[in-house]
Amino acid sequence: MIRLSGKKNGFVDLLFFLLGGCLCSLAVNMFTSPNNIAPGGLTGVGIILRYLFQTPVGAVNMLLNIPIFIWAFIEIGYKLVGKSLLAVVICSLFIDLGAMIIPPYKGDMLLAAVFGGALEGLGLALFLMRGSTTGGTDLVARLLSHRHRHLSVGKLLMGIDVIVVIFSMLAYKSPESALYAVIAIFVSTHMIDSVLYGTSNGTGKLYFILSEKYEGISRRILEDLDRGVTLIPDKGGYSGLPGEMILCAVRRHEVTRINEIIYEEDPDAFVIVGEAGEITGEGFHPSRSEDTTLRQLIQRLRHKKS
Predict the structure, then answer these.
(1) How many degrees, rounded to 5, is the angle at CA 195 between CA 185 and CA 299?
(2) Last residue of some domain: 181, 198, 215?
(3) Which of 133, 182, 219, 271 sits between 20 and 30 A of 291, alpha carbons compared?
């Protein structure tokens, strides 16, 4: 298994974070905020508060993230949220700096929702590719799921975004703003999927891990990645000693993090990584019914404008 050295890995992380911050800044300052579109999450809350009180989106995003990160430090430890904290600082700073120089787009609302969602999704994908999040509702959902295993991260995120979208409809006094926010969220989500997982959302990586420290590796994968593992009894051909082999399927963007976990727990682990052409089940293959819903929504908006 090929690993980057610590310094090179940190430099690549920073490069991805800077580019991701630029893209998120473009999405907010050029497309979503000027057109009263709040596409969920704490950034969406910041956009709404900018409209109501003229507060800076990035600063609000950072302030709202402080109690979430305190909770995360207590719940899962500083090592797991360090990257996310750096990502939030960079993203928030770029959003507020971009507000001073990026010209707003004041044109077709549908184009603003689509391009705003696409740029935001691309920016978020760059953070996720380096094993980070941008804090906010994503981190809240993961923390709730960490304590309550029966809760789905995806459903928690959807529920939080719905609340933000409803709040935006009340703040802007416009149902259309909420509908365009739904489009932006949909486009952003699919952009993330396309960048991280390719054109087929069911693909990923399959890990076979042989290590004497399988218990620690399994626990970290379950807690840090929120991925299931299967322990398969094995027996060494030379030593004849019994053991457990870990089988785990992950998304492509989770490869960096699982490699780090394995190396931290056991640098001498024997790891086989294979391509998984299709993975179905919770956390992998999404529902295809969403495509029809989006097309119907866009058609209704265009019909209303004409």
Answers:
(1) 40
(2) 198
(3) 133
Tokens, residue 186: 């949909």
Residues 55, 59, 62, 65: what is their CA dihedral angle, to the nearest 10 degrees?
-10
> Using one digit for the tens of pLDDT, what is the confidence trace for 261-292?
898 899 889 999 988 877 777 666 554 544 45
Q: Which of 91-100, 201-210, 216-225 has the lowest mean pLDDT?
A: 201-210
Whether residue 1 is predicted with pLDDT greater than 50 in this model: the reply is no
Decide if pLDDT at 217 tops 80: yes
Distance of CA 280 to the CA centre of its chain: 20
Residue 55 main-chain phi, psi, to 5 deg: -85, 150
Question: Would you give the DSSP letter of residue 105?
Answer: P
Task: Look up the domain containing 222 and give its range.
Answer: 204-276
How many structural domains comprise the chain? 2
Q: From residue 90, give the alpha-carbon distance in Å to each of 18, 21, 34, 235.
A: 7, 6, 21, 48
Q: What is the strand order of the sheet 230-235 is part of?
A: 230-235, 242-250, 204-210, 270-276
Same-domain status, 164 and 25? yes
pTM (2 decimals)? 0.72
Q: Identity (one letter) of the amino acid at 92?
A: S
Q: How far apart are CA 175 and CA 195, in angstroms?
A: 31
State whether 230 and 185 are in the same domain. no
